[in-house]
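Record 1 of the preview.
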Amino acid sequence: MRLAVDLSFFVADQRGMGRVVRCLLRELLADTADEWLFFVRKPADIPQVENWLRQVNPTLPAQTILAGDLPTQAVDACWYPWNRVDVQPRTGRRVVTINDVNPFVFPYRSLLRWWDQRKDENRFRQAARAADRIVTISEFSRQEIVRYLGVDARQIRVMPLGVDSSWFLPATAERAAESAGPRLLYVGSDDERKNLRRLMEALLILHRRLDCPATLTCGGLGDAAAAKYGPILKEG
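->
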């Protein structure tokens, strides 16, 4: 098979979806007989993508092109990981990852962002229309996609996120003994849509009502977030 993957944001995205794409491709490309075609937006991204691919599989039959050249290419299937379909191959089925429908659930509140809001909404709608199959990360997201984008639920497949084995290992008896109680880890930003405030409120419930000495560790947050959520933590 000849498979294409949209890597337009591969270099720039070092957060959630960029991490997911790297982990999935690392597994998919480690041992494959398929021919791969990757496309990017910027010429400067090509050597960085190809260098990463060589580290994953030095013998990988692959080519990296600019997105503008994709319409001339015939493939069997094309994967779009970033909630969008900006360009399509000449032939092939389109698999689109839509993790959430954030523009519809958390719209911009400022009238100055009206055009940005419409643009984001249209981008999601266009991706849903272009998709032969949509992949999402949870049953809740599946229901939200059906609700806001009008997609037939049978067109959507739920594929829960996995665990990066290079970072997370099974707990040993010694490490478990070192823990003073249940430990929760949150890694991410404090964007409103992440609902970190509700997570902290849930932690207070564990402490007060269930007498559970759980510890919450937040990674990736700065001083501004600490000041923002400080009053909640003091209540505990």
